[in-house]
Fold this protein.
Amino acid sequence: MKRCGWVPVENDLYRDYHDQEWGKPLHDDQALFELLCLESYQSGLSWLTVLKKRTAFRQVFHSYQIDRVADFSEEEMAAALENPAIIRHRLKLEATVNNAKAIQRLQAEVGSFSDYIWSFVDHKPLVNQVSTYLDRPSQTELSQKIAKDLKKRGFKFLGPTTIYSFLQAAGLINDHEDSCAFK
């Protein structure tokens, strides 16, 4: 079965992520929040590192239940910073809590994070023609616009490159290669 060229097929974690999750449209706030956080953790690291630590991150951050993460205590943060099973980058972990609070504000304002984020693509995935993953941009005007708006709303650690990766992962942008069986 043909997959996108960035997928090392011998790696089950990568392959399963590509086949079962990447690019599939998500509309659940909690699932979107988790992906947003995972993409922010990747900054400066490999995606495989993040995938390997995903289960531990879910345990630390209460399965990314937005209200639970927003109420994350100082004691929980101290424990997280000592936990070798996750990426112990203080700014990234603090951004997770901050961004949960920012999502709560968005939910109060517009109803859901899903409605907010999907409004940028008129609630329909953008399907790009991609002959090879090497042709995909790292950011676009859309990801720049969203990153700027999120920053204005108090979100942290989410630049236009991270946002573009998030849009791909959450299915708002379909960047599967044209020959990929999962397009």
The radius of gyration is 16 Å. Residues 90-110 form the longest helix (21 residues).
